[in-house]
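4.2 Preliminary Data

To establish feasibility before requesting continued support, the project team ran the inverse folding procedure on a target of 292 residues. The structure was first converted into the token representation described in Section 3, and no sequence information of any kind was made available to the design step. The complete token record follows.
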């Protein structure tokens, strides 16, 4: 009897141990199975998550800056009547250099002797923005009179701040791409990351180029000046006139007139039988009418 009880107790203990081991094994295997079946993030998803913030434009709030902090592009345009267009053009070019600026473009026009005596023209210069008003004042002193003047300005502060925000996002995205590139081990993944990184780098260069252009145009104001002479002298002899050309034209006209006369005479001679018949019929009719 004691032997039977011992066997039953041993069996119960063995059953408890088996159940405990099974439960413990299940608690360990289940998390591992879930981790194995859980989808891992792919390189494509990582790239998309990095590109999305980079392509967004910088979202900025209401810009509240003082007049000194704002970026203003200023331009001026003037039409001047001057005594000598060529001399004034050269003086304006010297003025630009004296103000640490430069000549953007210039043109002189005229026909015949006017190109040498009283041509017209225009010149466009850039001067530092802090010299803008002074340059306009000195340009007015070069004129006999001013026919027109206009000044314009464009506020590019908001655009510049937006570009700064976009640049910051793009540079941060590029850093993350470089980190992701160091961890990639497949050639296919490396090529995809490199291609996406190159696109971001292109966007960075484009943004920097636009920012540099805005900075240059803000720092150097543009002034365009149209120049007209005070008196347009008319020469005594029209440009291009020649006595020999006039003589040849007169002879040519005489020859053409003679050709027309010769042509008319030939037509009259050829059609003389017709004219003669018509004239004879007319005379016959007239004589008959008188006899009646």
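Position-by-position output of the design step:
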């Amino acid at each position: 009897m004691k032997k039977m009880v011992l066997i039953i107790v041993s069996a119960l203990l063995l059953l408890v141990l088996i159940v405990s081991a099974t439960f413990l094994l299940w608690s360990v295997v289940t998390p591992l199975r879930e981790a194995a079946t859980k989808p891992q993030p792919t390189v494509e998803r990582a790239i998309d998550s990095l590109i999305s913030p980079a392509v967004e434009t910088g979202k900025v709030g209401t810009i509240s800056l003082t007049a000194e902090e704002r970026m203003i592009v200023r331009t001026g345009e003037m039409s001047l009547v001057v005594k000598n267009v060529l001399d004034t053009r050269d003086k304006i070019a010297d003025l630009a250099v004296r103000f640490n600026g430069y000549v953007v473009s210039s043109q002189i026009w005229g026909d015949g002797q006017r190109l040498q005596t009283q041509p017209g023209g225009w010149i466009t210069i850039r001067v530092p923005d802090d010299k803008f008003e002074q340059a306009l004042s000195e340009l007015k002193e070069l004129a006999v009179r001013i026919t027109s003047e206009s000044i314009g300005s464009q506020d590019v502060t908001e655009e510049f701040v937006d570009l700064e925000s976009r640049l910051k996002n793009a540079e941060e995205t590029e850093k993350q791409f470089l980190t992701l590139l160091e961890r990639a081990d497949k050639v296919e993944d490396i090529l995809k990351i490199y291609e996406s990184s190159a696109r971001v780098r292109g966007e960075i260069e484009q943004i920097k180029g636009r920012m540099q252009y805005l900075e240059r145009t803000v720092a150097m104001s543009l002034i365009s000046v149209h120049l007209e002479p005070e008196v347009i002298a008319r020469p005594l002899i029209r440009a291009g006139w020649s006595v020999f050309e006039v003589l040849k034209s007169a002879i040519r006209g005489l020859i053409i007139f003679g050709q027309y006369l010769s042509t008319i005479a030939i037509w009259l001679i050829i059609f003389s039988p017709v004219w003669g018949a018509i004239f004879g019929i007319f005379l016959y009719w007239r004589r008959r009418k008188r006899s009646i």
